[in-house]
C-alpha cells in the first residue's frame, strides 16, 4: 500500500493518505506538549516507543473482541490504520484519583475510586477540550444516544482488559484517555494508547511511568517510556 500526502498534523502524530480510501498511515512524533500546548518539548524516541506500545495494546484489545482502527505496524514510527471519522469526544477513564480530578474534587492523589469514573471532553483545542456530559454531546449532535452507549461499554471493557494485563506487568492503570471513530457502520477505538495518553504507576513503588514526568519536570522521562515498552512489549 502506497503512502501519499500528509492530511493532518497534530501534537504527537502525522496522518497520511494511502492509495486506498479505507486506510491511512499514522506517523508518531517525538514532540511533547502539556497544558493545552503551553509547555512544549521533545522526548527522544517517544514516537518509536508510542507506536510500538500502542500497537501492542491494540492487538491485545482485538484479541479480546474490541474492534480498533489498528491494522499493522509499518516501521518503527508508522502504523497502518483503518480510516475513521473521529467522534469529537475524548473519553477519560479513571480508576484512581490523579491530575485534574484530584484538583477538581479535592481528592488526594492516589485515592482509589469506589467505582470506575467515565468523563467526556469536547475535542476542541481552541476551547481547551472542555468537559461535557451526555446532554451536551446530544445537544451538539456529536454522537447519537446509541453511539454514546457503545462508547461507554467499550471504554469500560478496555479498562478491564488493560488493568488485568498491566497488573501482570506490575503496573497500575491510574487513568487514560480514549478516542473513537466511525468506520462505515462501526464504532472503532482509535488514536493511541501510550504513556502520552495514560497514567501508569509502578505497582510496588508508585513511581510515575508516563507523561506526568514531562508535565511535572520529574526527570527521567525517556527512561519511563522505555520501562513501559520493556514491560508491555518485552
TrEMBL record:
Family annotation (InterPro entries): SAICAR_synt/ADE2_N, SAICAR_synt_PurC, SAICAR_synth, SAICAR_synthetase, SAICAR_synthetase_CS
The protein's annotated pathway: Purine metabolism; IMP biosynthesis via de novo pathway; 5-amino-1-(5-phospho-D-ribosyl)imidazole-4-carboxamide from 5-amino-1-(5-phospho-D-ribosyl)imidazole-4-carboxylate: step 1/2
EC numbers, comma separated: 6.3.2.6
ATP-binding as UniProt keyword: yes
An individual GO BP term: cobalamin biosynthetic process
One function term, GO molecular function aspect: ATP binding
UniProt keyword list: ATP-binding, Ligase, Nucleotide-binding, Purine biosynthesis
Residue span(s) of domain SAICAR synthetase/ADE2 N-terminal: 7-231
EC class of the enzyme, as a word: ligase
Matches recorded under Gene3D superfamilies: ATP-grasp fold, B domain, Phosphorylase Kinase, domain 1
Catalytic activity: 5-amino-1-(5-phospho-D-ribosyl)imidazole-4-carboxylate + L-aspartate + ATP = (2S)-2-[5-amino-1-(5-phospho-beta-D-ribosyl)imidazole-4-carboxamido]succinate + ADP + phosphate + 2 H(+)
HAMAP family linked: SAICAR_synth
Family (UniProt): Belongs to the SAICAR synthetase family.
Name of the protein: Phosphoribosylaminoimidazole-succinocarboxamide synthase
Organism: Pseudothermotoga hypogea DSM 11164 = NBRC 106472
Amino acid at each position: 500500500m502506497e503512502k501519499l500526502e500528509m492530511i493532518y498534523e497534530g501534537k504527537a502524530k502525522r496522518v497520511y493518505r494511502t492509495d486506498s480510501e479505507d486506510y491511512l498511515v499514522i506517523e508518531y512524533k517525538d514532540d511533547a506538549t502539556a497544558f493545552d500546548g503551553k509547555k512544549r518539548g521533545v522526548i527522544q524516541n517517544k514516537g518509536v516507543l508510542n507506536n510500538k506500545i500502542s500497537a501492542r495494546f491494540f492487538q491485545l484489545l482485538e484479541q479480546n473482541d474490541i474492534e480498533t482502527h489498528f491494522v499493522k505496524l509499518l516501521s518503527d514510527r508508522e502504523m497502518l490504520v483503518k480510516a475513521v471519522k473521529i467522534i469529537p469526544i475524548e473519553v477519560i477513564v479513571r480508576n484512581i484519583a490523579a491530575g485534574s480530578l484530584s484538583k477538581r474534587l479535592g481528592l488526594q492523589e492516589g485515592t482509589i475510586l469506589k467505582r470506575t469514573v467515565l468523563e467526556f471532553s469536547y475535542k476542541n483545542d481552541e476551547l481547551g477540550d472542555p468537559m461535557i456530559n451526555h446532554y451536551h454531546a446530544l445537544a451538539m449532535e456529536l454522537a447519537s444516544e446509541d453511539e454514546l452507549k457503545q462508547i461507554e461499554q467499550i471504554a469500560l471493557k478496555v479498562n478491564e482488559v488493560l488493568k488485568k494485563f498491566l497488573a501482570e506487568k506490575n503496573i497500575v492503570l491510574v487513568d487514560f484517555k480514549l478516542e473513537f471513530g466511525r468506520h462505515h457502520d462501526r464504532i472503532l477505538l482509535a488514536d493511541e494508547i501510550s504513556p502520552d495518553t495514560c497514567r501508569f504507576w509502578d505497582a510496588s513503588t508508585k513511581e510515575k511511568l508516563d507523561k506526568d514526568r514531562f508535565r511535572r519536570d520529574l526527570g527521567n522521562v525517556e527512561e519511563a517510556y522505555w520501562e513501559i515498552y520493556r514491560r508491555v512489549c518485552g
